[in-house]
Amino acid sequence: SLSDSPVTLKILQNWVPRVSHYFDKEHYTYVGHRIVIQESIEHFGAVVWPGALALSQYLESNQEQFNLKDKKVLEIGAGTGLVSIVACILGAYVTATDLPEVLENLSYNISRNTQDTNMHKPEVRKLVWGEGLNEDFPVSTYRYDFILATDVVYHHAALDPLLATMAYFCKPGTVLLWANKFRFSTDYEFLEKVCSIFNTTILAEFPESNVKLLKATVREN
Length: 221
Prior knowledge:
alpha/beta, Rossmann fold, 8-stranded mixed beta sheet, two-stranded antiparallel sheet, 10 strands, transferase, Methyltransf_16, S-adenosyl-L-methionine
C-alpha cells in the first residue's frame, strides 16, 4: 500500500567539477566509478533528469534491498544511459532501450562508461512504447528481474502505451522501480493508473526536487 511511510531523501550533488569545457558533458560519481555523460540538446531523452539521479543514488545506497548482481535489468526510456550504467556497475545484465533517435548518444555513453572488463556487457535496443513488444521482446525469451524507468512521465501523449509497456514487461517476480519528477496533474493521474494495476509502494521522496521513487510489482491472482 502507499500508506507505508516512504523515506525522505535529498538528491546529493554527486557530480564532480567538470574537467572538460564543453557544455554537453556531465561528470558523476556512483559506486566508486566516475561516469561521464554526454548530453544532447536535440532530444528530451538526451538530458539527465532528476529522476535518473534519484534512482542512481537509491540503487547505490540500497544494494542489499535491491541486489542487481547478475540480475536481468531492462531500462525503458533510458535517455542518456546514466541509470543503466549504474545498474551495470552494480553487476546487472542490462538492456537499455529508447526511441531510435536517442540510441546513438545512449550507445556512446554506455559503451564509453562500461568498457571495464569485469562488467556484463550491456545491450542497447530500440523500444517504442506499446509497439512491437511481442515481436521484439517475446515473453518466451525475455524475462527481467527489474524494470527501471526514470522521468518517463511528463507532458506527452504516450502515457497509455507507456503503461501497456510496463504491464507487458512486469511479470510475476519482476520489480518495477520508477522515479519521476511530479510536475503536472497528468503525472498524478498516471500514478493512480499504476496503483490500480500494480502493487505499489512509494520507497522514497525527494521533496526539494519533487521526485518520488516507486516500487511496483504485478498483482498475483
